[in-house]
Amino acid sequence: MNPTEASPADSIRDDAGEAVPARILRRMNESGGFPALDHSVARIVDALEVGDEDTGPLVEAVLADVSLTQKVLRLANSAMYAPIGGGVSTVSHAMRVLGFQAVGHLALGVNLLGSLENMSPHSRSAERELACSLLAGSVAGGVVAKAGRRNGEIAVVCTLLHRIGSLLTAFYLPPEWERVQRAIAAGRDEEAAARDVLGMSLEELGAFMARQWRLPGSIVRTLVAEPDADAQADDAWLYAMTRFSHQSARLLASATEPADSALEALAADFGPVLGLSGADLLDAVATAAEEANAEPALAGAMARRESPATGKDPVPPALSPLRAGIAALRDALDSHGTPREVEYAALEAAFRGLDLGRVAVLRLDAEGQTYRVDACLCEREPDRLKGLCIPAGGNDLAHFSLARKRDFYIDNPRDDKIAALLPAWISCHGTHPFFLLPITDADEEAMGLLFGQQREDVKLTREELGLLAELRDLLRRRLRADA
Q1: What is the C-alpha to C-alpha distance for residues 225 and 350, in angstroms, rounded to an integer?
Q2: Which among 432, 452, 428, 475 is positioned nearest to 354, based on CA atoms?
Q3: Which of 60, 136, 207, 386 could connect to 249 by a Cys-Cys bridge, CB 3.0–4.6 Å?
């Protein structure tokens, strides 16, 4: 459904005559959360609609939010992807290993819930509602790993967002949420309590908002109270997954002692439709509970449980982001990634590894007249590097770097001698340190340029500059092969 079309939810109004969804959107705007969230979700949805012929828009959409990037990479390295994942260090790498759709759907789920994680809940019950959704997502990831299903990330996303109506009410309409909770405590059914207070069920609210954000139909269909009798097998499996994961999370969060008998009964009920044994389902729940004890974001759901001793060896220190990005770039080269994939792998490695404000690859056109930005990443929108074209000849630092095939790292662009040679397309973004690394062809003639500008006035170390040159050389290998 188009979000601008009329919806049954539009006819449900509160005492002031304002539609409940509109009131939530207004509150989100007032808090400053909705405009940024709406823009971010729209970018991801638009990138998914572009498809995997051009993965750049999705990489940019995820990298625009550091927190989102970290969460996507964490999920990409989770047990759900154990057979094919592991050691995923960049979004480009995740896309290559897990698939374009997988990364896009993961980004949608963690982006929507992440916006709530960054807020201060008005009540303990709101905090617990969010924690339970995160815990349910962890259960779903464990079940997907056991089931070995392809495209399992959609199950995790459906589970994370299954209670989005409840979460939006808890965080943006706290008085109404507390009234619903009091009615439930007095014995009212949740759906009936929500209708009494909001005039609509929490599921209806969630489905309306999902359509507002243009989320995929497979997600929207799992938000309704009852499954469609004619649902396809995949949709029926997703529906069962969300229910099992959330009911398991509620049981884990509701008792001071493990609710073994209730969990066993639940696993027995859902095992046949999920295609797993009760033992496998219980193992997935146990793993999620163990992870929750060590995860601050899930503390709200597991606060009354003691953290068990795992007996596992300590996790070895991770590679630095830049070294990890270079490793991902090597992987892209070894797997014969396309020039576009390799370019974005190189850009992401530098962008994240060196905390850059923007980074780009410029390539010489076929006529040898101009250098055009072929791919770029930027921390802010709009990105004025997109579409940039500079002549092949000139008297500024960029052209000196290209003509002399010499790497430049300028740590003080404000120096009078340097300022006079700054290209306008660099100086227009401020005077933070930047680098220019020429890319040469097989005849050692300039064929392109790797440019990056830092976010802060922090000098790069000698080691970082060496790794940056290594990254450029790997990028050159692929671009030479494509020439």
Answers
A1: 46
A2: 452
A3: 136
Q: What is the mean pLDDT of residues 442-447?
A: 88
Q: What amino acid occupies position 470?
A: E
Nearest to 394 by CA among 370, 418, 373: 370
Helix (H) or strand (E) holding 453, with range, is strand 446-454
**φ/ψ (deg, to 5) at 448:** 180, -175
Q: Provide CB contacts within 8 A for 206, sequence distance 6+.
A: 161, 162, 163, 164, 165, 166, 168, 223
Topology agreement, domain 8-302 and domain 321-482: no
With contact defined as beta carbons under 8 Å apart, do 68 and 111 qualify?
yes
Each residue of 220-244: b (16+ CB within 10 Å) or e?
Answer: bbbbeeeeeeeeeeebbbbbbbbbb
CA–CA gap between residue 37 and residue 29 (Å, rounded) = 10
0.70 surpassed by pTM:
no
Express each pLDDT in 254-307 by its tens digit.
Answer: 754 456 788 899 999 999 989 999 999 999 888 887 776 655 555 445 544 433
- Please give the Cα distance from 21 to 58 (Å, whole number): 28
Question: What pLDDT, on the 0 to 100 scale, is given for residue 161?
Answer: 86
| CA 37 – CA 42 distance, rounded (Å) | 8
Q: How far apart are CA 347 and CA 114, in angstroms?
A: 25
Determine phi and psi for 447, rounding to 5 degrees. Answer: -125, -5
8 Å CB contact between 213 and 67: no
Superfamily of domain 321-482: GAF domain (3.30.450.40)
Residue 108 has which token pair? 């949608």
Amino acid at 71: K
- Report the amino acid identity of residue 311: G
Would you say 95 and 59 are in contact if contact means Cβ atoms under 8 Å apart?
A: yes
Q: Where are the domains of the chain?
A: 8-302, 321-482
End-to-end CA distance of the chain: 46
Q: Top-level CATH class of 8-302?
A: mainly alpha
In 62-81, which positions are buried (b, 16+ CB within 10 angstroms) versus exposed (e)?
bbbbeebbebbbebbbbbbb
CA angle 312, 315, 317 (to 5 degrees): 165
The CA distance from 193 to 196, in Å, is: 5
Q: What is the mean pLDDT of the chain?
A: 78
